[in-house]
Design a protein that fits this description.
single chain; mainly alpha; 7 helices
C-alpha cells in the first residue's frame, strides 16, 4: 500500500511540474507578444503615446510575473523529485532564462516608474493648452460676430435702398431691424452701442468660460494625479517583484553552478 502511494506521488509530481512549466511558458510568451504589439509602431517622441503605452504595459505587467512564478514552481518540483540535474549548463536551464527575463522586466518597470510622472505632466500641460485654445476661439468668434454685424448694419444705414430691400426680403433679424430703426438718424452712435454690447458679451463669455476652464483644469489635474499615482505605484511594485525574483534566482543558480 505504501509502495503504491509512493509511486502515485512520483507520477503526480512530474505531471504537476510539466503542467506548471507549460502553462507558465505559454503565459510568458503570450504576454511578451502582447507587449510587442503594444509598442508597434513606436512613437517615443509623443508624450501621449508614451503615457498610453506605459499605462497599458503596467496594467498587463502582472501577467508575465505569474508565468515566471509558474515556471519556477514547476522547476522546483522537478528538483525535489530529482528530475533536474545540478551539473547541467545554465544555458540549457529554463530557470536561468526565466530569471534573466525577470531581471530585464524589473529594469523596464523601473524606467517606466521614472518616466510615467513626467509623461503625465506633459500630457496635462497639453490638455490645458487645448483648453486655452478653445477659450481663445470662443472669444474670437464673439468678436467676429459683432464685427460682421457692425459692417452689415453700417452698410445698410448708409444705403437706404439696400436697407429697404433687406427689410422686404426678410434678411434682417428682429434684433437687427430694431438696431436699424434706433440708429437710422444717428449712424455714428451704432459703433458705440455695438462696442458696448461687445464688451458685455465678452465679459459674460469670459465669466462662463473662466468657470468652465477652472472646472476643466481641476478635472485634468485630478485625473493626472490619480493616473500618475496608480500607474507609478503599480510599476514600482512590479519592478520590485521582477527584480527580486530575477536577481535572487540568478544569484542562486550561479552559486549552484559553481558548487556543481
Amino acid at each position: 500500500m505504501s509502495s503504491a502511494n509512493t509511486t502515485g506521488k512520483a507520477v503526480a509530481s512530474p505531471l504537476a511540474a510539466i503542467s506548471l512549466k507549460l502553462v507558465g511558458a505559454i503565459t510568458i510568451i503570450a504576454a511578451l507578444i502582447d507587449f510587442l504589439i503594444l509598442i508597434i509602431p513606436p512613437n517615443f517622441l509623443d508624450a501621449q503615446w508614451q503615457l498610453a503605452t506605459t499605462t497599458q504595459l503596467v496594467d498587463r505587467g502582472i501577467v508575465p510575473l505569474v508565468g515566471i512564478a509558474l515556471v519556477l514552481t514547476g522547476a522546483w518540483i522537478d528538483s525535489n523529485v530529482g528530475v533536474l540535474s545540478r551539473s547541467r549548463s545554465l544555458l540549457v536551464d529554463a530557470r536561468f532564462w526565466v530569471c534573466l527575463l525577470s531581471s530585464f522586466l524589473g529594469l523596464l518597470f523601473v524606467v517606466l516608474t521614472v518616466l510615467h510622472p513626467n509623461n503625465v505632466r506633459l500630457t496635462s500641460r497639453q490638455a490645458l493648452e487645448r483648453v486655452d485654445t478653445e477659450v481663445g476661439q470662443v472669444t474670437s468668434q464673439i468678436e467676429q460676430r459683432f464685427d460682421q454685424q457692425r459692417t452689415q448694419l453700417g452698410s445698410l444705414l448708409q444705403n437706404e435702398d439696400q436697407l429697404q430691400q433687406a427689410v422686404e426680403q426678410g434678411q434682417l433679424t428682429q434684433e437687427q431691424l430694431a438696431f436699424v430703426e434706433q440708429f437710422r438718424n444717428d449712424p455714428a452712435a451704432l459703433d458705440d452701442f455695438l462696442e458696448q454690447q461687445l464688451g458685455q458679451a465678452r465679459q459674460q463669455a469670459q465669466t462662463q468660460i473662466g468657470s468652465r476652464r477652472q472646472e476643466a483644469e481641476q478635472q485634468i489635474r485630478r485625473e493626472a494625479l490619480k493616473s500618475g499615482f496608480r500607474v507609478a505605484t503599480s510599476s514600482l511594485l512590479l519592478a520590485i517583484g521582477y527584480t527580486v525574483i530575477g536577481w535572487l534566482g540568478l544569484r542562486r543558480l550561479l552559486a549552484m553552478s559553481r558548487t556543481a
